[in-house]
Every structure is written in C-alpha cells, then in structure tokens.
C-alpha cells in the first residue's frame, strides 16, 4: 500500500508552507461524526479496539481518508441507534463533517460516504434493588 502524501494548503502567506496529514483529517471527521445524534459508535479495526481497551480513545476509529486527484474522499463505518431514520442521520453526519472540515482546514471534501454496518439495540436497564 502506497503511503499517502500530506495535504498542501494552497494559500501562500510568505511565511512558509502549511501541510495537513491525512490522519488529522480522520480525527476531525471522527469527532464531527460523533457529535450527531443517532450515532451509536464507529466501527474500527482490531488495533483500535486494543487501544481502547487500554483507556485511550481512538477518534479516527471507523474513518478512512483517501487523497485522490479528484479531491478528498472520506469513508465512515458507523453503527446507528435502533429506531432512527438511517438516511436522515447519515445526511446529518455528511453535512457535519463537510462543515467542520471547511471551518477548520478550509478544504472542500469531494465525497463523504457513510457505510452503516450495524444497529445498536437499546440496552436493557437492570434494577439493582430487585433480587
């Protein structure tokens, strides 16, 4: 797998270059997605699961950023809460990620693809006083 290059910011301030690593875009997209109501969690890989077991939160879990000739492509793998409108929540996730990346980096995103990989059922509440 080829290593992805940094994103060069096009504005020349005369002070030097500004480059953004794709991992930074993954973290921003992950945090922006988690702000949307109806999102239960993000699906990560085995390594992200191991890291979270040791207490460190992986904000880029379930997010894949690709730098292509057509622009920045973002793929999210999400688990939604049961009972929410899937198209509505997915659209809110897409809009929030686009807006957050635009505000923080001034970059336009070509695509934000939301892959719903599961539904989180409500957890049954247990009463501690009842035996």
Pick out its properties.
Alpha-Beta Plaits; elongated; two-stranded antiparallel sheet; 6 strands; alpha+beta; 131 residues; 3 helices
Q: Helix content range of the residues, please?
A: 25-40%
Order of helices and strands: EEHEHEEHE
Query: What distance separates the N and C termini?
Result: 56 Å
Q: What is CATH's topology name?
A: Alpha-Beta Plaits
- Count the beta strands: 6
Q: Largest sheet, described in full?
A: 4 strands, mixed
- The 3D shape can be described as elongated
Overall mean pLDDT stands at: 82
Task: Using the CA coordinates, give the radius of gyration.
Answer: 18 Å
CATH structural class: Alpha Beta
Give the structural class: alpha+beta
- Indicate the proportion of strand residues: 25-35%
Number of helices: 3
**CATH architecture term:** 2-Layer Sandwich
The number of distinct structural domains comes to 1
Stretches where pLDDT is under 50 for at least 5 consecutive residues are 46-50
Fourth CATH level, the homologous superfamily: Cation efflux protein, cytoplasmic domain
In words, what does this structure look like?
The protein is 31% helix and 28% strand. With 131 residues, the protein is an alpha+beta fold. It has one domain: Alpha-Beta Plaits (2-Layer Sandwich), CATH 3.30.70. Strands 3, 4, 5 and 6 form a four-stranded mixed sheet that branches. The protein has a two-stranded antiparallel sheet with strand order 1-2. Strand 4 and strand 5 form a beta hairpin. The radius of gyration is 18 Å and the shape is elongated.
